[in-house]
């Protein structure tokens, strides 16, 4: 949300304080910059809306990890060995970390073996042995996942 506010502030500051009238025949650049800034703000707001409206998903097949409209991986229930509430602020190369900005993660999922995850905006996959998520209600998420695990009573 802060990033969207700063982008709007940047849009206003550039439009107000740049001396567009001195550009003469190049004054059309003002409208190109304004259109690009508005597009950027709309993209940020759409990304934030995607984060809120498309959270991680508990299905019959497994836990679907999403980053907005992008599906990172589906973790089959048989591949999850443990889930626990745990506050974490550091990143680890062997873990998939999906945190809340400035708040870290609050739910750890341990896997029974390596899992292949497609990284967003990159054309590569990564093998992870654990997952750390930032969720709204970690206790409820933990119970929802534990209820689906094959080893749960």
Helix and strand succession?
HHEEEEEEEH
> How much of the residues is beta strand, in percent?
25-35%
What is the averaged pLDDT score? 86
Helix/strand structural class = alpha+beta
Number of strands: 7
Low-confidence stretches: none
* Largest sheet properties: 4 strands, mixed
Strand order of the largest sheet: 4-6-7-5
| Estimated radius of gyration | 21 Å
Q: How far apart lie the N and C ends?
A: 41 Å
Please tally the helical runs, counting DSSP H or I stretches of 4 or more residues: 3
Overall spatial form? elongated
In percent, how helical is the residue content? Answer: 25-40%
Structure notes:
Helices cover 34% and strands 33% of the residues. It is of the alpha+beta class and 153 residues long. Strands 4-6-7-5 form a 4-stranded mixed β-sheet, covered by helices on one side. Strand 6 (105-118) and strand 7 (125-133) form a beta hairpin. Helix 1 (2-17) runs antiparallel to helix 2 (29-53). The radius of gyration is 21 Å and the shape is elongated. The two termini are 41 Å apart. The mean pLDDT is 86.
Helices, strands, pairings?
Blueprint: H1 2-17, H2 29-53, E1 57-58, E2 62-67, E3 70-76, E4 80-88, E5 95-98, E6 105-118, E7 125-133, H3 138-148
Parallel strand pairs: 5-7
Antiparallel strand pairs: 1-2, 2-3, 4-6, 6-7
Overview in brief:
By secondary structure, the protein is an alpha+beta fold. It has helices at residues 2-17, 29-53, 138-148, and strands at residues 57-58, 62-67, 70-76, 80-88, 95-98, 105-118, 125-133. 34% of the residues lie in helices and 33% in strands.
């Amino acid at each position: 949300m802060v990033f969207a506010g700063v982008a709007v502030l940047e849009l206003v500051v550039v439009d107000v304080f740049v001396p567009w009238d001195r550009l003469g025949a190049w004054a059309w650049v003002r409208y190109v910059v304004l259109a690009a800034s508005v597009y950027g703000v709309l993209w940020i707001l759409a990304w934030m809306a995607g984060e809120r409206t498309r959270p991680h998903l508990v299905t019959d097949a497994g836990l679907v990890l999403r980053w907005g409209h992008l599906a990172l991986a589906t973790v089959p229930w048989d591949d999850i060995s443990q889930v626990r509430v745990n506050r974490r602020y550091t990143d680890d190369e062997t873990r998939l970390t999906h945190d809340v900005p400035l708040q870290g993660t609050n739910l750890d999922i341990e896997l029974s073996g390596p899992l292949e995850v497609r990284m967003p905006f990159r054309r590569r996959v990564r093998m992870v042995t654990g997952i750390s998520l930032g969720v709204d209600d970690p206790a409820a998420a933990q119970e929802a996942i534990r209820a689906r695990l094959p080893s749960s009573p």
